């Protein structure tokens, strides 16, 4: 099983108390290309919930400093296409339903944009234990005419768990 598949198993298997394998924790967290290219979102999550749809969106805030005081531009330069990113609710005063986007090593690369059509839905799913997976799809910019490097991610949204009703 590839490194990313192990990571996804940990993430969607709701095994939050388990530690990540040593090969996933490094200074730059650059993952082997062969594992990145073979990863695709599973049709069902660990609970059997069906994949509903995959969305593409840009990452907002890529030119700002990360929550740890690092340059997001420098962080993004070390990212790879296909790399798994973790979406986490991150409420702030002006943006109560913000979702921060982090690498496995904890470095954040930005936020879901405020104008992303399903941002509030993603926030709610994350708050309520729903499965939402994401990975880096492509990079934009980084040229003479557009020097800021942007990032596009793919987000896989799954059915919500059915609640057991008391009889």
Structure, explained:
- With 167 residues, this protein is of the alpha+beta class.
- The protein has one domain: Alpha-Beta Plaits (2-Layer Sandwich).
- Helices cover 19% and strands 25% of the residues.
- The protein is built from 4 helices and 6 strands.
- The chain has helices at 3-12, 33-38, 72-77, 119-127, and strands at 51-58, 84-89, 99-102, 108-111, 132-141, 149-158.
- It has a 6-stranded antiparallel sheet.
- A hairpin with a 7-residue loop joins strand 5 (132-141) and strand 6 (149-158).
- The model is unreliable at 1-36 (pLDDT under 50).
Count of discrete alpha- or pi-helical segments spanning 4 or more residues: 4
The number of domains: 1
User: What portion of the residues fall into strands of 2 or more residues?
Assistant: 25-35%
Structural class: alpha+beta
CATH topology: Alpha-Beta Plaits
CATH A-level architecture: 2-Layer Sandwich
As laid out across the biggest beta sheet, the strand order is 1-6-5-2-3-4
Q: What general form does the structure show?
A: globular
What distance separates the N and C termini?
42 Å
Rg calc: 16 Å
Percent helix: 10-25%
CATH top level?
Answer: Alpha Beta
Topology diagram in text:
Layout lengths: L2 H10 L20 H6 L12 E8 L13 H6 L6 E6 L9 E4 L5 E4 L7 H9 L4 E10 L7 E10 L9
What tags apply to this protein structure?
19% helix, 6 strands, Alpha-Beta Plaits, globular, alpha+beta
Explain briefly what this protein structure is:
The chain is of the alpha+beta class and 167 residues long. It is built from 4 helices and 6 strands; from the N terminus they run ααβαβββαββ.
């Amino acid at each position: 099983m590839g490194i990313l598949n192990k990571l996804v198993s940990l993430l969607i298997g709701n095994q939050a108390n388990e530690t990540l394998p040593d090969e996933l924790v490094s200074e730059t967290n650059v993952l082997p290309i062969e594992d990145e290219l073979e990863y695709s979102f599973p049709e069902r999550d660990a609970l059997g919930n069906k994949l509903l749809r995959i969305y593409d969106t840009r990452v907002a805030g890529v030119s700002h400093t990360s929550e740890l005081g690092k340059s997001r531009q420098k962080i993004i330069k070390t990212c790879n296409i296909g790399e798994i990113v973790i979406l986490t609710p991150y409420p702030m005063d002006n943006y109560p339903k913000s979702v921060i986007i982090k690498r496995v090593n904890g470095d954040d690369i930005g936020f879901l944009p405020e104008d992303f059509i399903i941002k509030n839905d993603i926030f709610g799913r994350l708050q309520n234990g729903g499965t939402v997976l994401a990975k880096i799809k492509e990079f934009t910019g980084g040229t003479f005419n557009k020097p800021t490097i942007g990032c596009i991610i793919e987000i896989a949204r799954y059915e919500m768990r059915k609640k057991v009703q008391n009889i």
